[in-house]
Design brief:
- The model has no long low-confidence stretch (mean pLDDT about 90).
- The chain starts with 18 loop residues before the first helix and ends with a helix.
- Helix 1 (about 20-40) packs parallel to helix 3 (about 70-100), helix 2 (about 50-60) packs across helix 3 and helix 3 packs across helix 5 (about 110-120).
- Helix content is about 70%, strand content about 0%.
- It is built from 6 helices and no strands.
- It has helices at about 20-40, 50-60, 70-100, 105, 110-120, 125-140.
- By secondary structure, it is mainly α.
Length: about 140
Amino acid sequence: MTPVKPSSPRPSRTLPWLWPFMLVLGSAALVVAWSSLALASGHQHGWMALLAALEAAWMLRLGGMRPGWPRTLLALAATVAMIACVQWIVASGHIGAQMGLAPWQAMPKMGAGYVWLLSRMANTGVDLLCLALAPLLAAWAARR
């Protein structure tokens, strides 16, 4: 019997340019799902922020971004951006509906101060806790 030669290591199949596309696509899908759930049910569903944090870290990891501070900070920033987008869309959806506008039509008409006020009034204590913990979860999940 002939001895088995060790095969050379297989080349890495990671594509380092893939992570931006995966992050944008995953974030957009989660923002649409979270906004739709919140507008359909009438509740904020702050627990979805924790899923947003895990999704941001997962997309960066699957996309081939190397671990380190850049990935940690990017996951944190993506989570905060998703939270802000959802809060803006949900506030616009509720106010726009009273004026006969779709959420995307009401969004440019809403000021940041008004969205901030409506979001503070609509979120419960548990929602606010989840919204506050989500960026920390994103940073923790992306660091590995």
